[in-house]
Amino acid sequence: MREIASEAGYSTGVLAHYFEDKDALLVHTLHVSVERAVGRFERGIRGKVGIEALRAVLLEALPLDEERAEEMRVWLEFWARAARDEALRAEQNYWYSLWRGVVRALVEESQRRGDLGSTLDPVREANSLVALVDGVGMQAVFEPGKWPPEEQRALLDAHLERLRGAAR
What is the pTM of this model? Predict the structure, then answer.
């Protein structure tokens, strides 16, 4: 908390007035990150449908630039603390339920449009895509030289192409 207050140019007392503890600050930071991501999701899917909308949303969740990399770092910090704290784990589960629901709805839309095979399980594919984005995102934060944006996009595109192949 001292480091954060110092970096922001405030005393820890000012920070403590707004945030009970580090977890409260982390939850607030997570909410801000989610709001930013949702705004990007909404802008990213304008005019897109089916698998193109699905791709756009998934790309917005990857750390392709500094803003998204910072958001991934927030999630990484949150995951580490949520693994040991039941209240934070409930918060994480809430947001992930919503995230998987968005991806599942886009998978289902892609199936209705014929972009993805109707025999695919949309829940399983949504879980797979979320796990792919999380794994790639985490690795890209830890080893950005091995996971530049073009590699992240290529991996996602290859996975979506395999799913698209199931529609043929």
Answer: 0.84
